[in-house]
TrEMBL record:
It is a multi-pass membrane protein. The chain crosses the membrane at residues 50-71, 83-101, 107-125, 137-160, 172-191, 212-236, 256-277, 284-303, 309-329, 341-365, 371-393. The keyword Nucleus does not apply. Its main location: membrane. The keyword Ion transport does not apply. Keywords: Membrane, Transmembrane, Transmembrane helix. Residues 13-409 form the Major facilitator superfamily (MFS) profile domain. This is CynX/NimT family MFS transporter. InterPro entries: MFS (IPR011701), MFS_Cyanate_Porter (IPR052524), MFS_dom (IPR020846), MFS_trans_sf (IPR036259). It is found in: Cell membrane. Coiled coil: none annotated.
Length: 409
């Protein structure tokens, strides 16, 4: 007897869950890209040292790594719906508090609260989709991934014009409205689910997780994931300032270019999974990401004023390694427990590595008073994906690799 869920209307009986998934997905990324374009305006009210900017850029991956571990523990106590609601409450409070920051410390603390909520939301969305849309997992994953890309693109596009027309506080605080709206469907669903059994988030088998430390394939995916995250979060933290300093663009133009950087992820989120699954294009996609990323860095180093939009667009292609890695997490395993363990391994270690770079780049810039060395560091990070590509592109699984090296899985 087949256990495949019977397909039914996407809307029937689950419109609240559908809205909830979309508004949570929008809220998860809008806070990431809305701050750095207006740091100059914030600096007119109080000083924000490069080290603090680096810490703010480091907050997302640190929170994502930490809450990737603790969210399943919280979910067992609270349930999916209530924890999603609490995460959106925390995001609303953090976004509101950030708009009322009085110094660099309160700016950092409020931002940390925001990304703690985002870290919880990142973990909750897949099991939420599995619970409410078991017959449409592929469609819903594609839709909310696209929403993540859209919500990363919009904030830097409007941040500076809104700050200039009103204030930087409104520019960074307006996103609290969306997080507040995102609470409502999860409040409704929590009220409905209080008598239902708790849906637990599956965690990795410790025995399987431990084996991954010894497998080159697992580490190749960690590297690919870390390269993507490093370029993305370092750019969200520093790219506007890099562009104003080395390319001579205005703050508003830098915000638009940051939006261009984010926007390059939209076609990637739509096309990369299809190209990997249907055309076996893993090796080619690694090559495109590396060549484009290195070309973007080279352009910012050698001729930053010649074509800053081109250099930013090329740099924005490098994070296509993110959807590529997510697809490979499924394709490079043949068992369910292997998939869960590999996902936890790659994301927890990958985000821990990513967390070093936004802060480190700020320290390097502070020490050298220029952007040459930080850009060279980003170029070296992109180049690290080259050896990872040779391992990750081979059509084998972690179970195959373990059995070839150590015997039965």
């Amino acid at each position: 007897m087949s256990t495949t869920p019977r397909s039914r209307s996407l809307w029937r009986g689950r419109i609240v869950a559908l809205i909830g998934v979309f508004v949570v997905a929008f809220s998860l990324r809008s806070a990431v890209a809305s701050l750095s374009p207006v740091l100059g305006a914030i600096g007119e009210d109080f000083s924000v040292a490069p080290a603090i900017v680096g810490l703010i850029g480091t907050a997302p991956p640190v929170c994502f790594a930490v809450f990737g571990i603790v969210t399943p523990l919280m979910e067992r106590k609270l349930g999916l719906e209530r924890l999603a609601m609490i995460a959106m409450i925390a995001a609303t409070l953090g976004l509101t508090a950030r708009a009322f920051s009085v110094d660099a410390v309160t700016l950092l603390l409020s931002t940390t609260l925001i990304f703690a909520a985002v870290g919880v939301g990142n973990i909750l969305l897949p099991p939420i989709v599995k619970k409410y849309f078991p017959d449409r997992i592929g469609l819903m994953t594609s839709l909310y991934s696209t929403m993540l890309a859209i919500s990363t693109l919009i904030p830097p596009l409007i941040a500076v014009p809104l700050a200039e027309d009103t204030s930087w506080r409104l520019s960074v605080g307006v996103w609290a409205v969306f997080a507040a709206v995102a609470m409502i469907p999860w409040l409704v669903l929590w009220m409905r689910s209080r008598t239902a059994p708790v849906e637990e988030i599956e965690t990795a088998n410790p025995r399987v997780f431990g084996r991954l430390w010894r497998l080159p394939l697992a580490w190749a995916l960690v590297v690919a994931f870390a390269v993507s995250g490093t370029i993305a979060y370092s750019s969200f933290a520093w790219l506007p300032q890099i562009l104003t300093d080395v390319a001579g663009v205005s703050a508003a133009t830098a915000g638009v270019l940051l939006s261009l950087f984010a926007g390059m992820g939209l076609p990637a989120s739509l096309l990369v999974p299809l190209l990997v699954v249907r055309a076996n294009a893993t090796r080619a996609l690694f090559a495109v990401a590396v060549v484009a990323g290195l070309a973007g860095v080279a352009g910012l180093l050698v001729a930053p004023t010649a074509a800053p939009a081109l250099w930013v667009a090329l740099l924005g292609i490098a994070p296509l390694l993110f959807p590529l890695t997510l697809v490979l997490l499924g394709l490079r395993t043949r068992t369910h427990q292997g998939s869960v363990a590999l996902s936890g391994f790659v994301q927890s270690i990958g985000y821990a590595i990513v967390a070093v770079f936004p802060f480190g780049i700020g320290l390097i810039h502070d020490a050298t008073a220029q952007w040459t060395v930080p850009l060279l560091v980003l170029g070296a990070v992109i180049a690290a994906a080259i050896p990872a590509a040779f391992v990750a592109a081979r059509p084998h699984t972690i179970e195959d690799e373990w059995e070839r090296r150590h015997g039965a899985w």
